[in-house]
Amino acid sequence: MSFIDSNNCPNRHDWRAEFKRLEGAYAPATIKSYYTDVRIFAEWCDARGLEALPAAAETVCDFLEHQGVSLCPSSVRRRLYAIRKVHRLLNLPDPTNHENVNLALRRVRRAKLGRPKQAKGMTRAHLQRCLEVQRDTPWGLRNRAMLSLGYDLLTRRSELVALMTGDIELRGDGTLRAIIRRSKTDPFGMGRIGFTSRRSAELVGEWLAWRGDRIDPLFCGIYQGKPINRSLETTKVKLIIKEAVAAAGLPPEEVAAFSGHSLRVGAAQDLLCAGFDTAAIMRAGGWKSANVLARYLEYAEHNVWA
Prior knowledge:
- By secondary structure, this protein is mainly α.
- The chain folds into 2 domains: 6-111, Orthogonal Bundle (DNA polymerase, domain 1), CATH 1.10.150; 124-297, Intergrase catalytic core (hpI Integrase, Chain A).
- It has helices spanning 15-18, 28-47, 57-67, 73-89, 99-111, 124-132, 138-153, 157-162, 198-211, 234-247, 252-255, 262-273, 278-285, 290-297, and strands at 168-170, 176-180, 192-195, 220-223, 226-231.
- The strands form 2 sheets. A 3-stranded antiparallel beta sheet has the order 1-2-3.
- Strand 4 (220-223) and strand 5 (226-231) form a beta hairpin.
- Helix 3 runs parallel beside helix 5 (99-111), helix 7 packs antiparallel against helix 9 and helix 7 crosses helix 12 (262-273).
- The longest helix is centred in the N-terminal third of the chain and has 20 residues, at 28-47.
- It is globular and about 65 Å long.
- The chain starts with 14 loop residues before the first helix and ends in a 9-residue tail after the last helix.
């Protein structure tokens, strides 16, 4: 039984309708990923005449190994999680708990041994160059403030664009105190507190002086030279970073290595090189796991023997 179009066959499991139950419980990006992965699994089963819901463990194994040819292990693992989720939503027997599925995933991982790809860090040296090349325009004011603040707070791009004007306050020492209210590892919005340099406080102040006080998002869009009361898309952060490093004169191969995660990566690496311990870096960036932090720090140019 496949389920490419549940509207044409009332006996098929309507997994798309069940996905609505995830709204509010998971981030929209997570729901979108699950939806896409289940659709790909469904189409793969349909093309081979295999039953997708419920799926046999052997079907899941074959699918994972097929996907492992072209995808990285983390993407294959994400598709496995999506298959598990849709079976549980529909209250169907879960094939993903079978030991053969675990072995199939391990084969995928061992077939592609290698270091995980990581965004190039926007370290302090890169950041300074990127700030210097921003033009004295409304866009330049905003981008300077975004880059500096994102670095100081070690934000993910989703956290950066989600900041509201009321989430920051000026401290007596000329720095900012900010609350990051929700993140990838904080789905229930407990929030974390971050602090900035005086540089970021000054750049954010310059941006707010131009933007005015009638805008809710800290960093908003600009249309025809005027601010609009709407948050930026997460993709805009990646674009701003890439445009900044390109304008700073970095070669194309280096520009390609930067991403929306580069501010967080670079700041963590700089903190390590500055001598801060693991607990301090985890506190600054909101990490819950030292193992995850270790992957961020792996490429830091930090020689303990120097």
